[in-house]
């Protein structure tokens, strides 16, 4: 079963995120369960590159769109380097593990507002599942 679908117009950031999720599910097939019983939309904006994509959990799939949603449950805004760093951060209970140097770096970036996650309080399960799907660790 294909768990990740992409918009035909996708490029750059969207293609990278789709490929990362595909690779992580292939390497860890149990992660496909993260797509079950969850729905929601996420916008990811790489401010340094001036690009944004829309991600959607729906019908046991992870959909990647070339354009962001008008209104998304979550919005992640940061630079492209930080987006890549997030994939290598060890997780603890689905969140960046602040007991590790990488986890503390993420926390510092959030405090300095170099990494903003809007909607995290309202949609913690959605954020948790996204982090676990994107984690290459």
Q: What key attributes describe this structure?
A:
Nonspecific Lipid-transfer Protein, Chain A, 4 helices, 137 residues, two-stranded antiparallel ribbon, 6-stranded mixed beta sheet, alpha/beta
SSE arrangement:
Layout: E1 4-6, H1 12-27, E2 40-46, E3 51-58, E4 61-65, E5 74-78, H2 80-86, E6 91-92, E7 95-96, H3 101-111, E8 116-118, H4 124-134
**What's the CATH first level?**
Alpha Beta
Major beta-sheet overview: 6 strands, mixed
What CATH architecture label applies? Answer: 2-Layer Sandwich
**Percentage of residues in helical conformation:** 25-40%
| Low-pLDDT segments | none
Number of domains: 1
**Fraction in beta strands:** 25-35%
Radius of gyration: 14 Å
End-to-end gap: 23 Å
CATH superfamily: SCP2 sterol-binding domain
The overall pLDDT average reads 93
Adjacency order of strands in the biggest sheet: 1-4-3-2-5-8
Q: Please state the overall shape, judged from the principal axes of the Cα atoms.
A: globular
- Put simply, the count of helices is 4
Please explain how this structure is put together.
- The protein has 137 residues and is an alpha/beta fold.
- It has a single domain, classed as 2-Layer Sandwich (Nonspecific Lipid-transfer Protein, Chain A).
- It is built from four helices and eight strands; from the N terminus they run βαββββαββαβα.
- The strands form two sheets. The chain has a six-stranded mixed beta sheet. Strands 6-7 form a two-stranded antiparallel sheet.
- A hairpin with a 2-residue loop joins β3 (51-58) and β4.
- It is globular and about 35 Å long.
- The model has no long low-confidence stretch (mean pLDDT 93).
């Amino acid at each position: 079963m294909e768990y990740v679908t992409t918009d035909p117009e996708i490029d750059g950031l969207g293609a990278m995120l789709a490929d990362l999720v595909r690779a992580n599910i292939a390497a860890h097939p149990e992660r496909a369960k993260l797509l079950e019983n969850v729905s929601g939309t996420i916008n990811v904006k790489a401010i340094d590159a001036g690009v944004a994509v829309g991600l959607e959990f729906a019908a046991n799939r992870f959909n990647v769109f070339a354009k962001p949603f008008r209104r998304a449950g979550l919005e992640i805004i940061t630079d492209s380097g930080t987006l890549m760093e997030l994939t290598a951060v060890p997780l603890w209970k689905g969140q960046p593990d602040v007991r590790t140097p990488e986890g503390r770096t993420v926390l510092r970036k959030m405090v300095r507002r170099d990494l903003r996650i809007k909607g995290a309080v309202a949609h913690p399960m959605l954020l948790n599942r996204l982090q676990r799907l994107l984690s290459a660790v």
